[in-house]
Amino acid sequence: MRGLREVLDIPAEEVAGIIGVSVDKYARIEQGEDDITISNLMKIAHKYGVSAEELMFAESPRMRSYFVVRKGQGMSVERTKAYKYRSLVSGFMDHKADVFIVTVEPKPHARTIYKNTHPGQEFNLVLEGQMEIYLGGKTIVLNEGDSIYFDSSQPHGLLAVGDKAVRILAFTV
User: Fold this and answer.
1) What are the pLDDT digits (tens) for 97-122?
2) Which of 53, 70, 130, 163 has the largest CB neighbor count within 10 A?
3) CB–CB of 170/97 below 8 Å?
4) Per residue in 161-171, pLDDT tens?
5) HEC string for the chain
6) In this model, does residue 79 exceed pLDDT 60?
């Protein structure tokens, strides 16, 4: 993110304002001392016309016709302590949606769900496990094979249910 700011001559105060954090917190994020949510990365990417993957992985997509990701592969990053993201579209230029496999590890006694918001819409398909999704004040339980499509500007977050990690296919547009 620092590279983006430097190239485009964007003050840290401006980016901190976009994601609603103090300049000090934003500085800690740039230095890798604090986590940043995928939703905040997406807000920055949308504002400055870059992909979330470019901010996450510091690489620019190069493919124009197609991009293959083999099983278990794909650019992976843990941007917050709650979720691990594996991008399935990071190498395709000008993709219209962000597509990730998201893994949420179980927290047996946790009842707090880490919440995000970002512009657009989101589709989640549960690949493995069971989860609770907090969405705009409601808690919805989804099982393997279940899916949900929603307005991602509403506060939302996931919690793995039981002692098994939940894996979802997440599309954001």
Assistant:
1) 888 899 988 887 766 677 888 888 99
2) 53
3) no
4) 988 999 999 99
5) CHHHHHHHCCCHHHHHHHHCCCHHHHHHHHCCCCCCCHHHHHHHHHHHCCCHHHHHHCCCCCECCCCCCCCCCCCEECCCCCEEEEECCCCECCCCCEEEEEEECCCCCCCCCCCECCCCEEEEEEEECCEEEEECCEEEEECCCCEEEEECCCCEEEEECCCCCEEEEEEEC
6) no
